[in-house]
Design goal:
83 residues; mainly alpha; 434 Repressor (Amino-terminal Domain); 4 helices
């Protein structure tokens, strides 16, 4: 693994393209399951505000809240080495 890390141990924030891809996938899956944002929030144990911000691609979403949302929708987050 290469790349420079900040003092916090991170390699920087996700790109807006990556965030948009997550946001679009969540929105599309929610609609495919015929769920409102409020229903998805209830099923995933998050809040309506979080779902709204997630679908808008807010850069500071919390991973511990994202994973249950993905699970409800039958989605997975995969990590692959950058090329």
């Amino acid at each position: 693994m290469s790349g420079k890390f900040s003092r916090s141990g991170t390699a920087g924030e996700a790109s807006s393209e990556e965030l948009s891809a997550i946001a679009s996938a969540v929105r599309a899956a929610r609609r495919q399951h015929h769920l409102t944002q409020a229903q998805l929030a209830g099923l995933s144990g998050t809040g309506l505000r979080f779902i709204s911000e997630l679908e808008r691609g807010k850069p500071s979403i919390s991973l511990h809240k994202l994973l249950p949302v993905l699970a409800v929708l039958g989605l997975q987050l995969r990590v692959v080495e950058a090329s």
